[in-house]
Amino acid sequence: MSELPGSSPTFEEPDFSHLPAEEDEAGEEEVELDEAVAEPVEAPASDEANALEGGRAKSVLEHLARSIVDDKDAVVVEARRERGQLRLYLHVAPSDMGRIIGRRGRTAQALRTLVRAAGAGEDSDAFVEIVD
Fold this sequence. Notes:
single chain; alpha+beta; three-stranded mixed sheet; 32% helix; 15% strand; elongated
């Protein structure tokens, strides 16, 4: 049979019979399941902010804001629960307001997107408000 123009050729399974068969590695010990089970690790005390509802979103916003601004000590994030939503109010120094907002608000929009994604990991709707 001849192939029609525009039709694809049929696929044939490759022949691997010429390759040597894989051998099992000898001498390996099997680990019993009881030995392989790890003990639960308690969360360190430094993750207390993440234990709060919306703590991950708040931590992400604070970390990102501190990495953008010049005056890191002026960064304050307030978290309030309003109408079933987590509202995060970001306070920065007036001289850093332009850095946080960015050109045409692109930096602010990126912050909002990242914080909302962090909140979604905790099943929380997180919204960022940038306060003067």
